[in-house]
Amino acid sequence: MSEVTGRELAGATALVTGAGQGVGRGIAGALAARGASVAVVGRTLSKVEDVAQELRARGGRVQAFSCDVTDLDDSARMVDEVVGVLGGLSILVNNAQTTYNRTLLEHTEDEYRQIMDSGPLATWRMMRLCHPHLKGDGAIVNLGSAAGVRWDPSGYGLYAAAKEAIRSLTRAAACEWADDGIRVNAILPLADSPALQEWSKARPDEAEQYLQTVPLHRFGDPEDDIGSAVAFLCSSQSRYITGHSMPVDGGQVLMR
User: Fold this and answer.
1) Which residues have C-beta within 8 Å of that of residue 230, sequence separation ≥ 6?
2) Which residues are catalytic?
């Protein structure tokens, strides 16, 4: 990880869901390194506690919270706790997502519900719960995916559908909440996450072929690449950017 010396998010308070590993962990690290107080949120408390301990050791102001974002009451409880502990909320990052890689005929209806409940429903829910606290000068970053805009989403069609729904919610919230002083954007990351690493080990030839479709010929670091992009979208440097879906993928996707 590269060392960040800027404090462009000093005084900001952030909530990151799905922060126990991978991209969520990286985003939390990037926000904390830039001075934000960060609530790392996940279903498994021990995992987010490990993340919080690691980031505090690096000088970050980080607290761990457990929550099942597919449950309305639990989500409302968690948001109230975060606001109470951090003293407010100015940044929301919706990263949590359950997924399965199967064809449409292989999926079950229960898997469909899990994917949609943890993705677009939870994203909409969290935006609504956090809206009162973000009014004035808040920022939301939602996690989309290139899966929804690729030429062939075979094998991950439900995941792609969920991520496209999140992008639509992002655009709607950006337009509806602009007068409330809330900016809302999405990123489409290609990250060197634990899931991608497992896939690369299991299918090295396929992974290498996939990597060749990335002009920069590498997968993004969850903190230095993906997290830095999120931090930019949450900072005053992007104060005129809202309703945008930004690929953070080494040039792989051309948005139209």
Assistant:
1) 27, 30, 31, 93, 141, 187
2) 159
Closest CA to 166 of 238, 97, 247: 97
Q: Output the pTM of the full model.
A: 0.95
Both structure tokens of 65? 């919270």
The residue length of the chain stands at: 256
Asked if residues 121 and 168 have their Cβ atoms less than 8 Å apart, the reply is no
pLDDT per residue as tens, the chain (256 positions) = 445 557 899 999 999 999 999 999 999 999 999 999 999 999 999 999 999 999 999 999 999 999 999 999 999 999 999 999 999 999 999 999 999 989 999 999 999 999 999 999 999 999 999 999 999 999 999 999 998 998 888 888 999 999 999 999 999 999 999 999 999 999 999 999 887 888 788 778 888 888 999 999 999 999 999 999 999 999 999 999 999 999 999 999 988 8
What residue type is assigned to position 26 of the chain?
G
Q: In what order do the strands lie in the sheet with 245-248?
A: 61-66, 37-42, 13-17, 91-94, 138-143, 182-189, 245-248
